[in-house]
Amino acid sequence: MNIYSRMLGDVLPHASRNIIESYYRLKNEKYHELRSMYPNIPSHYVHGVCQDAVERISSLRRNRARQYSREIFDESVKHLGLGKRDLRGKRIVRHLWRRSWEIARHQVDLEMSNGILVPRINSVSLWLVDDHVWEPVNPTKIDINDVENIFFTSVAINTHRGWVHLDLEPSKEFYKLLARGFKPASHAKIKLDRKSRRVLFHLSLEKKVEIHKPEDIVKPVDVNKNSVATLYEAFSIILETDLAKTTLGYSYRKESIQRRNGSGSREARKAMKKLKEGKKKRNYRWKTASLIVREAMMIRGVIVIERISGDDIRFMIARYRNKQLRHRIYQSALKGRAQRDNRQG
Questions:
Q1: Mind listing the pLDDT tens digit for each residue in 226-253?
Q2: How far apart are CA 267 and CA 257, in angstroms?
Q3: Any bridge partners for residue 155, and if so which?
Q4: pLDDT tens digits along 105-135
Q5: What is residue 136's predicted lDDT score, i.e. its pLDDT?
Q6: What's the confidence (pLDDT) of residue 66?
């Protein structure tokens, strides 16, 4: 691991100064130099070092540009004297963000090319890029759900001192993924956990997935404040969510909390967090969307749902004068339920 860290330290300054985000370019420029400096290391570790360096350069460049663009955007808003009403225009905000991002990327590239901005090596994971540097020891072939797979509890890793054997303690998630048809991939990572004095072996799993091709069956979905209407076979059904009643109950509880503790006090905020209104609404939405999508996948149908935006909800409640009714409709999360169905489908 120390040799891998030194190799990474030799590659990062060169990749940072030249802003290299291509693995093949960095490998072509540094491969022979690293092989001559570390002749006893297997050659595939050089490939892992180049991939690791490119990932660090790309991550640093993206995150620092994001930080600079936010600062430049705030300074531009102050300099132009724009208020909240001015920032409601999407064209102005989009133009400012685009200009801020361009200036931030240019600033980051200048700092990296001048050697001011270089990635720091805080922690190192050993990249095992293919099965030339690691292999399972005594793998056992198993048949799960008519899918042939392999199972192993120890691996061998190729190092400068030869092959080193490691015994593994797989987690429960590993067994669950094997049972679902996932197979071990050829690449993995190793990290030292110095506090617990153990080695963490991060194994990637992969699975061939069949693409869902919908047929000419249309499954319409209509989202209301207290229910969701859809088709099941040839019948129209209504799934009652009681979301409006839940919203009204939480509204009464929030009013009583605010009367006791005040609207902006710390006690009121802590009491409202314990209500877990958002978690309960999210649970309603996920369960409803799961029922609809599961049935649509069985019949290979296409889900058709109305497109709801925040403006549509505001226009819908504009004709109601009762404040409580307007609040209940607005808080019933019509837009969220439509997005859940859309995302799962």
A1: 778 888 777 788 888 777 777 777 777 8
A2: 9
A3: 136, 166
A4: 999 999 999 988 888 888 888 888 887 888 8
A5: 85
A6: 93
Indicate yes or no: pTM above 0.70: no
- Enter the tokens of residue 310: 């925040």
3-class DSSP state of 209: coil
Smallest CA-to-CA distance from 119 within 44, 200, 59 is with 59
pLDDT digits (tens, 9 = 90+) for 195-204: 888 888 888 8
Buried b (16+ CB within 10 A) or exposed e, 17-38: eeebeeeeebbeebeeebeeeb
Q: Cα(332)–Cα(324) distance, rounded to whole angstroms?
A: 12
Is the distance from CB of 240 to CB of 313 less than 8 angstroms? no
> Is beta strand 126-128 parallel, antiparallel or unpaired with respect to 183-193?
antiparallel
Distance of CA 197 to the CA centre of its chain: 30
Q: Is 332 exposed, middle or buried (0-12, 13-18, 19+ CB in 10 A)?
A: buried
CA distance 229 to 240: 9
Beta strand pairing status for 183-193 and 198-206?
antiparallel
Q: What is the band of 325 on the pLDDT scale with cuts at 50, 70, 90?
A: low
SS3 157: strand
Q: Residue 297 carries which side chain, given as an amino acid letter?
A: M
Half-sphere exposure of 283 (CA within 13 A, CB side): 7
205, β-bridge pairs: 184
In DSSP notation, 251-294 reads: HHHHHHHHHHH-SS-HHHHHHHHHH-HHHHHHHHHHHHHHHHHH
